[in-house]
User: Fold this.
Amino acid sequence: MNDTNLDPNSNAAFSQNSGAQSNPFTGELKGEFSSDFGTNTNAVSQIFKSGGFASENKTKLILGAVAVIGILGAAYFFMSEPSEDEMTSAEEAMDDEEMMDEEGMADMGDNVEDMSMPMDAAKPVETAQPMAETAPAPTGAITLISPADGASQSYDETEGPAEFQWEGPADKIVFSRSQTMNPPVKIVTLNGASTYSFENPYPGTWYWQVNNASGASEVRSFKISSPARRSFPVTQPAPGGTLSGNGGVVTWQAGEKIARYSVEFTPAGQSFAAPTYRFGSSGTSVAIQGVSPGSYDVRVGAFSEVAGRWEWQVIQGVTVQ
Assistant:
């Protein structure tokens, strides 16, 4: 920790031990050599000029002088090396300077942005580059136009195909009976077309969607109602009536969008899968020939151009004479 009583701008951390100090060995030296050393700067020369010392004493004096010089050299070495307190004070002072630098920068706060010159003039100021925008995920860019979602119409082969239209290039159109489009019932390759004609979709609820390499359109539904039945009431024979087997006539009223008619006889109560007698007409009547007497069920059929199939009326219990 820093000493709060020290001025960080002063050299007090270094001046405690850096001033002139008394030699710690001086007192002992004075006590041993006071007779010849004293304070005289020529003490060494006086040793050799003194006549009261024998050769042994001279040798001792020389050895003593060498010892004194060694002690003085050691004292100088320890005095010149910085003490532990001085090193600690120096490190604290450096920490103080670094803290001052950090606090000074912290105190500047937002003012750093207002400086007219960069802090390091030798380096160019780097400008942050804007991040590249991420393109939105492709959705196919297809807009369905018609039919509208939930549209309905009756099955009618005379009206032509159901028409589908959209905006945007398309690779395929998919039809399904499920809103999830799985499983698909019909898949048609389009090669970039913007319309498709669906020939006579069967009655029921359908779902459709247009796709391309980038994605798919919304899913729409449409409904096809059952075809309207043809009306061609049978006028003769009536149920339980009679009819001549040779020259008897079966008649009915004409209906719209009917291609042709058929009259069939089968023994009463049996299936029409294999009728005993069959007669055809493009008009509204047929004269029968060669029908054996008996009890028959008679059915009259009209081939509906709307439904593309036969529609039947059955007259039961007709007696052929």
Q: What stands out?
A: The helical segments are 12-18, 26-33, 43-49, 55-80, 84-108. Confidence is low (pLDDT under 50) at residues 1-59, 82-139. The chain is about 25% helix and 30% strand. The first strand starts at residue 143 and ends at 146.
